[in-house]
Amino acid sequence: MRYTEHLVLSCIVNGAFLLVLYTIFHVDIFRVELIVPAVLTFYVFSILPDIDHQKSHASWILNLFLIYLFGSSAFDFYKTPNPLDLAKIVIATAIFIAHAKYAEDSYLHRKFPHTFTFGLVACLLLYFLVNSVLVCMVGAISFFTHMLGDGYVRKAIGKDRALWRSVGSKLNAIKNKIAKRKGF
Fold this sequence. Notes:
Blueprint: H1 3-23, H2 32-47, H3 57-79, H4 83-102, H5 116-130, H6 133-150, H7 153-182
């Protein structure tokens, strides 16, 4: 799907979700402190899985943010040298280079960002930033509708299973090495 189609599908599903919350559960979804983060989250999470494609809107937004972060931090560092600004410059540059190496220009780009594990990590980071379950639910719904729209739900679940099996086997290997060292 194109990004506009992902946005429309996510808008319909999120709209239904918020309507149910408002009409049945009487949740005040029109609070000012929720509207801006919810709309931004809806937009970003609707296209977030495509961040591994070089020409996607998600990659464009990431690159724009990184350029802004680099530029503003470099300017602040030039005005008043500060280790935090230098760290921001290094982090922005590292993310920019890593994304350039990782992202592909192919419709077969679906890598880790097209897994529910990536969606979970993104939602946890979002909760850390905004501290709102409602905004995180909008993000989770938007992410899921992207996967649904791509017809990628089953493959994503399969990738998640393989990922967690791999993590589990590596953790077991570490546990066994520790047990051998202690003589258990």
